[in-house]
Recover the amino acids of this structure.
């Protein structure tokens, strides 16, 4: 058996997230079907994490074991011939047998894009959160700096429907290495790099930071929200369409 690592990019707009679901188009399910057509095997590739419906990826990582003898240098091209245009295999490589896309991951980077102009171009609408309303962007940036370091992020986590109440028993402590906003032309872009992320965590952080920009809360209040460990203290969940998984570290 060989252990194969795939680097993937996908447009999540028309997909129901990563996790395989009955009667729904998902990244994992579609990839599994195409691998099966190539190898004749019943394989369920494992991802570095489960992106939600509507979330995009520039560099998702997946791994799977196979007895197929298809040369790894041909695998990416063969899969891309079968996959829909919204999912692309950027690279395929053979890795050590103990490599696992999720369990071996040591860090991830996400990016969130907010379009700030009055009219959002139609070809951007599915890839950004259009937010043309008044916003103190300096306060948004200041608030983001308050989550740096190791914290319990219970206040920024939604209950994972796949895990139910079991999610409450697992540690919500994560370390954030980078948390910053930048103005990039017409967009306000958030980049966050951390040891790991909870369900909806990045989108909940974005929604909360915008409250600081609207003057609803002070940037310094982020500390008390973290300490409160209560989801009701934080802001609303930002839309999925502005979120991208941009890197996974091993």
């Amino acid at each position: 058996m060989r252990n194969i690592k795939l680097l993937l990019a996908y447009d999540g707009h028309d997909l129901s997230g990563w996790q395989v679901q009955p009667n729904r188009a998902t990244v994992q399910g579609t990839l599994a079907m195409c691998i099966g057509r190539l190898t004749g095997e019943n394989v369920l590739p494992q991802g570095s994490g489960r992106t939600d419906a509507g979330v995009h990826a520039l560099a998702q990582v997946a791994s799977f074991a196979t007895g197929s003898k298809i040369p790894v240098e041909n695998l990416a091209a063969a899969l891309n011939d079968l996959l829909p245009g919204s999912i692309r295999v950027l690279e395929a490589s053979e890795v050590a047998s103990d490599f696992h896309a999720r369990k071996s991951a040591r860090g991830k980077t996400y990016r969130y894009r907010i379009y700030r102009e009055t009219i959002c171009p139609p070809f951007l609408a599915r890839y950004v959160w259009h937010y043309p309303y008044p916003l103190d962007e300096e306060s948004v940036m200041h608030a983001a700096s308050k989550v740096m370091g190791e914290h319990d992020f219970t206040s920024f986590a939604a209950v994972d429907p796949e895990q139910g109440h079991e999610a409450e028993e697992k540690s919500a402590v994560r370390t954030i290495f980078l948390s910053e906003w930048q103005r990039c032309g017409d967009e306000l872009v958030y980049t966050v790099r951390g040891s790991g992320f909870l369900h909806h965590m990045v989108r909940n952080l974005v929604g909360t930071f915008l409250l600081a920009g609207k003057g609803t809360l002070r940037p310094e209040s982020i500390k008390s929200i973290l300490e409160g460990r209560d989801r009701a203290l934080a802001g609303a969940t930002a839309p999925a369409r502005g979120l991208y998984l941009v890197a996974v570290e091993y």
